[in-house]
Every structure is written in structure tokens, then in C-alpha cells.
Amino acid sequence: MHPDIERVLIARYEIQDRVKILGAEISKNYSGREILAVGVLKGSVVFLADLLRVLTVPVELDFIAVSSYGASSTSSGVVRIIKDLDRVVTGREVLLVEDIVDTGLTLKYLAEHIRAQKPAGFKVCALLDKPSRRSVPVEINYLGFAIEDEFVVGYGLDYAGRYRNLPDVCVLRRDVREGK
Ligand code: PRP
């Protein structure tokens, strides 16, 4: 295990099992339709890469990048689009893919941004949800795991840009995140 990690919260095999179930559910619900999967950079890329490969319906891929937290671990509430969608979403079945929903501010903003462009449908798939941290109500249509308010990294999630490559969802050691 990486020395900065306190413990594994969700092991890679649990994630893979859950991703397969989510993929099957999404594929069933979108039967006969094409999905425009929108990954929210950067945290969603590992989850998105796994999810895409278990979908059996046609999928087109796009990305959007926003700034929210920066290097800090608390939400400023300020969301700014750094990279917008390449594809026109009007009339498309958009599936927004997030690694984690925390306060909900990012998702609320992105949902409004995308819905304003009149997609045929708009759904959200998130690997992790921290419901105790919510400050604005948001809808998550497909969820991997609801977790307690712990500082998690790995499987795409970072702290100050690091640990995204860890294969499990892990709790970061407190002294590491406090810079001791
Ligand atoms: C994370 C996550 C969501 C957002 C959720 O992104 O990917 O986009 O924070 O937090 P919220 O519900 O409080 O808005 P982050 O800013 O860490 O960027 P990253 O995906 O590049 O790591």
C-alpha cells in the first residue's frame, strides 16, 4: 500500500463489480438509443474508462473541465468552465459522469449549463457520493457508492493533483493532507 494511505475504503474488485452493475443498468435503460457520455475532468477519467467498456449501447464521448477546489480540499462554491464541450448536446442523450459529488455545487452548475442547451435527456452517473456534505440538492441517477465524509483519493481522485493512479478508493492519511 502507498505510504500516504491510511486504509483502502473501496477495493478495486468491489469497484469493478459495481461498475458492471451500473453499466448493465445504464445499457438497459438506454436500449435503442445512443449516449453522449460527458466526463468531468479530471477525476472522472478512470471511472469513465471502466464504465464505457461495460456499456453495450452506442456511446460518444466528450469532456468538460471546471475549476472548483484548486489545491484546497474545501469547496469555494465558485465553478468556472475551463474546457467546454466539443459536441453539440442539443437533442442528445447526455450522461454526465462524475467521480464524486460533495457539496453538489459543481453538479448543480453543470446540470444547468447542459440542460440550457436542450439535450433530449440529461442523467448523472457518479462513482461516489458524500451526502452529508451536500449544500445544494442535486439528483444522481446512477450511483456507485455513498460514503462517509472521509478524504478519499485514488481511482481518479486526487489530493493536490496526486494519487489519481492508485487502483483503489483510499483514505488519505490526515498528516499528509495537513502537510505535516
Ligand atoms: C471534484 C469532483 C467534482 C467536484 C465535486 O473535482 O470531480 O467535480 O469536485 O465537488 P462539489 O460537489 O463540492 O462541487 P475537483 O475540483 O477535485 O477536480 P478534479 O476532478 O480535477 O480532481
Number of separate strands? 9
- Annotated CATH architecture: 3-Layer(aba) Sandwich
Mean model confidence by pLDDT: 94
Approximate helicity band: 10-25%
What is the general shape? globular
> What's the number of domains?
1
By CATH, the topology is Rossmann fold
Q: Which regions are unreliable across 5 or more consecutive residues at pLDDT < 50? A: none
Q: Can you lay out the helices and strands and say which pair or pack?
A:
Blueprint: E1 5-10, H1 12-29, E2 35-41, H2 45-52, E3 59-67, E4 80-83, E5 93-101, H3 105-115, E6 121-129, E7 142-146, E8 152-153, E9 169-172, H4 174-177
The structure holds 1-O-pyrophosphono-5-O-phosphono-alpha-D-ribofuranose.
Can you offer a commentary on this structure?
The protein is of the alpha/beta class and 180 residues long. The protein has a single domain, classed as Rossmann fold, CATH 3.40.50. The protein has four helices and nine strands, in the order E-H-E-H-E-E-E-H-E-E-E-E-H. It has a six-stranded mixed beta sheet with strand order 4-3-2-5-6-7, with helices on both faces. It has a three-stranded antiparallel beta sheet with strand order 1-9-8. Helix 2 links the parallel strand 2 and strand 3. Helix 1 packs across helix 2. The structure holds 1-O-pyrophosphono-5-O-phosphono-alpha-D-ribofuranose. The site of 1-O-pyrophosphono-5-O-phosphono-alpha-D-ribofuranose has 18 residues, from strand 2, strand 5 and helix 3.
